Amino acid sequence: MRRAAASSLAVLAAVTLAACSSTSNGTPTSAPSSKTTPSSTSGPTGFPSAPTSAPSTATTTAGVLTKTQAQAALLTAAEVGAGFTQTQSDNSNTPLPCTPNEPPLSTQFPPDVDVQADFTGAAGSALFSEEIQTYADAATVAQVIAAGEHGLGCGTAVVGGVQVQLTGPKNVAAQLQVPVDKAEVWTLASSQLNAALIITQIGPQLIVFSFGAAPSVDTSTLPDESSVVVAGLKKVNEALK
């Protein structure tokens, strides 16, 4: 997988929306075809549900994961739960929704390590993706995140002929149960897909979690986003010890 981790910001907004009728690479297969105004109240857009008193920051001296360590730190299907199964990762190199004429983040900021795991559930109508990447230093990760924010910050965008509403970033570092340097949530809503993107930083590591589902999916049957993110971040922190 050779796109920057923060370009997972575009996986749901660009790749999935543009190919929502496909059955390959874990993209939803039963999203509605209606072009009605997107709803921001349905789908996996409410992460996290409640704050905790957990630590909210990590040391900026966090080590650097090797590719083997990063691969081992990815969540498994069993850890995602709710009947999700792993699928082949898409290797698309896609610009972000609000900056379609700018180079993909992987071109602007090539990572040193890049691993990803993709999963699908709800009979192909929901998906989850986790991507872990390492960079030379935390300052580079901050640049990647800033570029990602720019690429999502337009409020609305048209992706694959579908209007998408984008909201964020929302700082959720203090609501996680594991130490991180940064954690923010973006939500995306359209007539075909609702999604939540959780972008986190631990030192020179960038970890992005992407949740998406057709608006028709009963989200109570899907994995709890907060729990999945916390589980993923715990594995990364364990791998850094």
Notes on the structure:
Residues 1-11, 13-43 and 48-60 have low confidence and may be disordered. Strand 7 and strand 8 form a beta hairpin. With 241 residues, the chain is α+β, with helices and mostly antiparallel strands. An 8-stranded antiparallel sheet has the order 1-2-3-8-7-6-5-4, sandwiched between helices. The protein has one domain: Protein Transport Mog1p, Chain A (3-Layer(aba) Sandwich), CATH 3.40.1000.70. The chain contains 6 helices and 8 strands; from the N terminus they run αααβαββαβββββα. The radius of gyration is 16 Å and the shape is globular. Helix content is 24%, strand content 25%.
Notable traits:
single chain, 241 residues, alpha+beta, Protein Transport Mog1p, Chain A
Q: How much of the sequence is in beta strands?
A: 25-35%
Give the terminus-to-terminus CA distance.
Answer: 25 Å
Number of helices: 6
Strand order of the largest sheet: 1-2-3-8-7-6-5-4
What is the name of the CATH class? Alpha Beta
Give the C-alpha Rg.
16 Å
Backbone shape? globular
How is the main sheet built?
8 strands, antiparallel
The helix content is 10-25%
User: Structural class given helices, strands, pairing?
Assistant: alpha+beta
SSE succession: HHHEHEEHEEEEEH
CATH topology: Protein Transport Mog1p, Chain A
Q: Unreliable segments (pLDDT under 50, ≥5 consecutive)? A: 1-11, 13-43, 48-60
Strand tally, please?
Answer: 8
